[in-house]
């Protein structure tokens, strides 16, 4: 009974806007079945080599870097409302164009453009979460949003595995439809609220002189933190590239079974996230939570270096889900705490860039190591690297947050 109360209590106090942001994210991500299958699509359908597939997937990361920077920059200029709906609606035709291209250069180019447009959404969305959430509920608001992402991710890949067995084109057109629906819903709900928020902000500007705040690109401690976020992402994001290839080529899973395992991961995160976040907030410090989350993610990959039976695959994915719950939403919270009141978009954008750089490095590095040295070395090496990152987070997080408390009297 205590666990049930703790779980249900974790949803209390969240604003209507936070719930709607999560619903928009759910609809958008329910159609996001392309990314986990891009590697399989290029190797099996377009017959690219594994190494060339890794190079093409890196263009997604390059676009993500540009999109994260551009999204953060524009958000601080024109607001998160316009950036989010433009990103969603402009993604629609780009998703439809992906299956038109059949060469490495063509696929890389369209993925680059699509990634720039889609990933400009992320820093704007993060700013919106901090804007509409109560200060004491920021982590849970991020967790609710991530829960929506994972619920969509549990639906998308499972459906994607079935559809890709029929035709890969269905994946791209479904993504386009979901992005369109999410964009329209977002505009309908937030158009009036955005006008009210802008009027309030305008009145505040007329009364209070806005303090000019430092750029995150000159914040040395935050740059170090983002570097380790990037290293963590290099480990974690193998979920979207090398892990699916490992499932297909080494574990000999069908596309449907790959979709089921990925769907299981999304479902498990939805089931556990809010409760585990509540436990972490109540019993752990930010440093301990980040240590545990990062270490458990590394452990989940290291297990695959010793066995790839179905039981091990499911157990590994279960550990990965718990690890990401105690890492990813708290990374966003730490970024929000480190930023000021008027440069959240830039801070969220820079932190997003650290994830995006990993999207460039991970597919190429992972596929190269797997092809030249084997998956066993890749998975064990990932576990060792994640352990090192976990130890680094344990010391960096309190060092950075303490510095903000001492230097910023308006610290939340």
Automatic annotation (TrEMBL):
Localization: Cell membrane
Keywords, alphabetical: Cell membrane, Membrane, Transmembrane, Transmembrane helix, Transport
Membrane topology term: Multi-pass membrane protein
Membrane-spanning residues: 20-42, 54-74, 86-113, 147-166, 172-190, 222-246, 258-276, 283-304, 310-334, 346-365, 377-401
PROSITE patterns: MFS (PS50850)
Keyword Transmembrane helix: yes
Family matches, as InterPro entries: MFS, MFS_dom, MFS_trans_sf, MFS_Transporters
One of the record's GO molecular function terms: transmembrane transporter activity
SUPFAM superfamilies the UniProt entry points to: MFS general substrate transporter (SSF103473)
Keyword Membrane annotated: yes
Major facilitator superfamily (MFS) profile domain mapped to chain residues: 17-401
Coiled coil: none
Broad class of where this protein is predominantly found: membrane
Record PANTHER family: RESISTANCE PROTEIN MDTM, PUTATIVE-RELATED-RELATED (PTHR23517)
Protein name: Predicted arabinose efflux permease, MFS family
Organism expressing this protein natively: Chryseobacterium taeanense
